[in-house]
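Put briefly, the fold is written as integer tokens. One such record reads:
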Amino acid sequence: MAPRVLLLLLLGLVLAAPALGEGLGDRKHAVDKRIGALQARIAAVGAKEDALAGEISTVTERIRALEGRVGGVATRLGVLERDLALYRERLARLTELFRLQTDRYRFLERQHALAIKRLNSRLVRIYQSESVETLEVVLAAASFSELLESFEYINRVGAQDERIASAVEEAKQESRAALQRTRRTKAVVVSATRATAVRTAQVREARDRLLAEQGQLASARSAKLDAVGDVRRRKADYLSEAASLAEVSEQLGGQIRASQARAQAAASAPEPAQESSGETAHTETPASASTPAPASASSSGLVWPVSGTVTSSFGARWGRIHQGLDIAASSGTPIRAAASGTVISSGWMGAYGNLVVIDHGGGLATAYAHNSSNAVSAGQRVSQGQTIASIGCTGSCTGPHVHFEVRVNGSPVDPLGYL
């Protein structure tokens, strides 16, 4: 059933309750404890919301810082990639140039070898048959001028062969020098290309890591934003439910005060005459052997319900008002009535666990919660210092203790002002 429907039903029961009684006190304490639990939840989700907001802020700052780093790395990577592309293009052109120069050098080398070979062959033939050829030229000449022309032709042929061989040698040397220059340039470009490629790979890897981290942070921030949304929705639900319960609690408090006023009015009315029996009616339960003498009462007439350590005082706690005093003691330690009075409630009260509520008259009441067991029942008269329950940890608690409340006209007050 939805929380709002339960609250409406509870409010209807409260408005229909005619008197104080055990059920009214039970409902009052149950509603107050429910309000306390809701306030604790509201404080918890508020703290979680603040923590998530802080985490989201931190993650957002890290994302922004990463965006700046990614931008700087991306710019650097773009420059390196362009440089690498230029180096590779230049290297490709140098490789092609080196290939062409190598082919030219080898061609010239072959041509020079052929020229030298022809020149050497011609010189050898001239040397070996110089007299015969000279005689043949002289005998074959028709005139002296023709003889001169023949010798000049022979000399020109020899000179041409020498020039060809020299030109080819010079071209070959120039080709070799160009080839060496290209080889050195290519080596430099290869080294620069390799270095640029390494730097580019390193920067690309750094960019990829930053992008991956940025993606992880973005996912974490998205998850935290979703969690914040859930926390805020739960907080809104808790606040709405707490407001409704506070209204019901106020209604119960008013009815308790009205019931106490009626009880006081009835007590002040003249009692009917009793039959003479020689005995006086006595409703207070006499002290038993297990009831120790009460400790020294305070100026308000109350004694401490148990000897132990105060672990939580009355006041603000977890975004709400802690309506009592928590006194820790070992399990099973007897809990004593702070003053004499009438038990108006004894039983299980939700987060209070086992609860005893005593009305001391004059609008003053005390409550004892989280008991392992109760030793009294509703309507019973008890004396100050009488054992009414035992220390335990029932309901909503974290260790054995008694949650002790003092209420004046139904409203909680600081117990230390009465002890």
In short: The two ends are 43 Å apart (CA to CA). The CA atoms of residues 112 and 166 lie 8 Å apart.
